[in-house]
Amino acid sequence: MKITETTIPVDLDRYLAANYGGDITSTASYVERGAVLVTPHSLTGLRTLRPALHAKIAALETGSRLRSRLDALALYLDETAAERATLSPAIREAAFALLYFLKGFDRIPDSVPEIGLLDDALVVQVVFQRHEAALRGHWLRRRRPWQMEN
Known about the structure:
Elements: H1 10-17, H2 27-36, H3 40-48, H4 50-58, H5 65-80, H6 89-102, H7 118-130, H8 132-141
């Protein structure tokens, strides 16, 4: 399924498609600015895109750090986004990371051998570093072991 304005807001789609460089000093700033654009409509769109997201995640090497983290973010969103009236920064940034991974216009195209997923991994790493307490707490409340290392 293709990402369109019916699945995510136009502003977020433009931000994901743009190659920002000049005014963004870090990946953390990029994630933070992008997460501001995540709305409840974005989460609804992401749920619609779930089959495409699962397929892209499934194509990653089994047991890879990126795959396990993307699976964790997807599960976190599935379990928390519907429960909450407001979108926490952790939910917004997790959704942004998943949309960034799914979106075809990366800073480094996924098709580049050896390094194509590096930018995706950096975005996911930032989300894990910034929201480890929320993610770990979510896992523990559901009596699941937290096995993600920073």
